Structure formats: C-alpha cells, structure tokens
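MOLECULE: protein
FOLLOWS: sequence and fold
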Amino acid sequence: MARLTREALLQRGALPRKTVKLPVMGEEVLVQGLTGAQRDQFEGDSVVQRGKHRSTNFANMRARLVVLGVIHDDGQRVFTDSDAAAVGNLPAADIDVMFDAIRELSGMSSEDVEELGKPLPGGQPGFSPIASSETSAASPSTSSSSESAPAN
C-alpha cells in the first residue's frame, strides 16, 4: 500500500460535512468538521492556564464552536468569531444540534470536551468557570475577595 507524500498530506482535502435540521427554527444548516488549527483555537479559547492551575472558560462555549463550523455551500464560514455572542442567543436546542454535529465531524468526543475542565496531571485542581471579574494571578491575596460574576 502506497503511503501519502508530504505534498499529498499538505494538499487540503475536503473536511467532512453534514446538513442538520434545527429543531426549533425548523430550517437546515450545513456544518463541517474543524481543521486542526480551528480545533486548537477552540480549545485554547476554552482553557486558561496559570502555572499548574487550569480553568475552563465555559462562556458561550457551544456558540464559539458553532461559529467555527457552520458554513455556506461554498465552504466559507457563515459566522465570524465576533458573532459568538449573537449565536449564543439562539435557541439552546438548535445550538446543541449544531455543536454536537461539528464536534463529531471534528473527531472530538464528549470526553474530549469534558477533558478541557479537568486539572492537570500532578497539579492541583484548577477547575472553575472564568468570571469576567477574574482576579489577577499577580495578586493571589485578592482571590478570596468579595468579587463575583454577574448573575445571568
């Protein structure tokens, strides 16, 4: 069996695609799996690391994946990264259908998504949602201050 050459590997192949029906809106959208760079972007945006402590940024996590994977028929993205907040306001059931399809097409298991929030091996647990008023790592004495995230 012949092995792929460097040129063949680097030639961008078609990413897997799927049409999904949105249960609330009743319409269909086309989604595709992520490239390696897009998956790294999504995972990098979902984790904040400070030393051995890792925190998960759950803010609009599903919408951030959806904006990367919903495409037009020509393969161009429907949304820009800055659309994540607006996409987050769509019906949750519709976001879930798109998220699950993109995750599966990207080879991400539900365990991979859960893994983003687990503590580092050998490190202290650092699992916590990121709040917009997060304190600085340079001033650990303020980490127990009365600051709190706004209620949703």
